[in-house]
Amino acid sequence: MASYRIRQYRDQDYDTVRTLFARGILEHTPAGYRHVLRSAWAQLGLLVLFAAVRAAAGYWVLGLGAVALVLSAAWFLVRSFSTSYVRQALSTDLRDISASYLRAPDSCFWVAEAGGAVVGMVAVAPPQDAAERGVALELKRMSVSKDYRGRGISKALCGEVLRFARARGYGAVVLSTSMVQLAAQRLYEGQGFRKVGASSPSLLGSLLCFQIFHYRCDLPGRTAAP
């Protein structure tokens, strides 16, 4: 197993980190698409569409064609949802990583390095939820290259965030992850995080029956949140 080390982000990591983040998000598009197709509403809608077109046109081939067009449109919507999220991140906090995480209070950004290359990343910052500010920090932008998963890198990166928050006197770490990121959910739950809620990120997300799960990890020695 190849060795790795966790270190603080440097400016020369900029392009690699942004690419790693984008690839990590976009690789979940197929899982998101499968989730949409497994929805009872989606399956019922496709069945009704097929039956309606077949009855109106008299040809089952046209019914299949209509279903194929809708499936293509659904893929486009799921893909656009992912790319929109990536564009937003790259144009906000990941546009100037040093300013966002290294020069900002109670924030940091780490990378995992193996064989001289950056293969993982994670950040921590005050949470967007105003109710959590001053109480918890937020784990953000976790991603590990596909070729280096299963080697404990994600666990080590998560550990850096927990230690950082504990050292600064915070009582908890919070994070959000999508419902299709099952491996990430298992990782966080294995590190002591518990799911505390779920929300839809947008109107498009609601239409696609897509949810974001919210997790919280109460740090040892602090009072757990209700």
From TrEMBL:
CDD domains: NAT_SF. The keyword Repressor does not apply. The chain crosses the membrane at residues 59-78. One of its GO terms (molecular function) is N-acetyltransferase activity. Residues 69-220 form the N-acetyltransferase domain. Keywords: Membrane, Transferase, Transmembrane, Transmembrane helix. It comes from the Eukaryota. InterPro entries: Acyl_CoA_acyltransferase (IPR016181), GNAT_dom (IPR000182), NAT_camello-type (IPR050769). Gene3D superfamilies: 3.40.630.30. SUPFAM superfamilies: Acyl-CoA N-acyltransferases (Nat). This is NT8F2 acetyltransferase. It comes from Pelecanoides urinatrix.
